[in-house]
Amino acid sequence: MADIATGMLDVFTGDAVKELLDLRPWMQGKTFELLTKPSEVEAYIDRLIEKGLCGLDLETTSLNTRKKKDNSVYAKIVGVCLAITPNEGAYIPVLHEDKEFNVPFKFMMQQLKRLVNNCVCVYHNFKFDGEVLRNHGIIIEDEDMYEDTYLLTAIEDASRKEKKLKWLSEHVLKRPMIEITELGVTGSKKKTVAFDMVPPQTAVYYGASDAMNTLGLYLVLKKRVDLQDPDGKQGPWYIYKIEKRALFVTMEMERNTVLIDKEYLLGTQAEVKNRMKGILKDVHNLAGREFDINSPKQLGAVLFDELKIRYPLKEKSASGQYKTDEKTLVLIEKEAPIVKKILSYRGYSKLLGTYIENFLGNVDEYNYAKFQLNQVRADTGRFSASGGRGVKIDGYCGVNCQNIPTYRKDDPDSIDMRRAVIARPGFKIVTIDYSGEELRIAANMSREPMDKGV
Questions:
Q1: Is 224 a member of any domain?
Q2: Disulfide: which of 27, 61, 63, 98 matches 394 by Cβ 3.0-4.6 Å?
Q3: Which domain holds residue 129?
């Protein structure tokens, strides 16, 4: 075990990492332990179980929690980050390229399972870490055995937009953290490397800090929420417990994925491209010449200089060009047939890029797509679906499932995009809409007596 003191940085990490830590004074005097022997790991986890509460974070090879065709995983656990207090943390390497420091993987999974079943672990974004653990055979189904600072920060202050751990660590804890891009520092040149390539002697500062600050953030937020809801029965704590239980359902919903009719999409893609080609020909005929319809400068010149269409705004853009965004063109849509054609072209272009190509490029080998579902991003408390970054990055399909356009039979330009989402073999898709359900839930949670006279 290496209990790394600041004065020994040159021995373990060299001048480059010392420079990084010098920029973060809060790290001075804190305990960063690099655990490399099974006996050390077992003893440390014994300490955590005895304490009953710890910070836990996982360093992985990927953000994608889906499984491959052969049931192997994309997000392999590279290392385990633990914290017994906000000032005492440890890092356990298991799949680093520098195998000298790795703890046996199977042993580490056994110890992790022992930990999460006997100690309340604090995560930041349990939806990710919990899914990674599940993929490695460690299933957590008791909401009392985990805390999630990602959920809690939204409950403590629903107006707070930023919920990432690094931002919260800097602004709530006043502890700026090491960025992942800084871990590839060699001399004065910076480059990003995969985490399994980071030397464990360096990874300990990044990883242990994650767990230490996650635990520290929980303790700070807990004090704040305790002040808002001292009884823990009807206020923020009550809502937080509901969110924790609901998160298990959200994770299962994402895990099940959605079947996409790829053949239908390929046919729709060809149809949309053909329609766009016809519209572009009409636009060029109405303009009297060919031009780049996607160039705001060229489009503005054609509409307002050459065709003399009334410019609906008082001023041009900051660069001195005509504004040709949708909001501007809608104001003059009825004044010239070419404008309606351009808006139609843009509608098809958005449909093609945002939905059709996103689906086609982000389904797996079985034509299943994974939607990203967010419990606490919307101020209203409703679910949101931000789409994700793509199947090759975080496993999501990139499509916001809440914004898939509705097919309108009375609109000749309309395309039935929802037809691309189909039922699995042996199942049916059912539409259910609860009218005013949020108001009913809010009324029940308020516990206000019913006025029988109303």
A1: yes
A2: 63
A3: 2-254
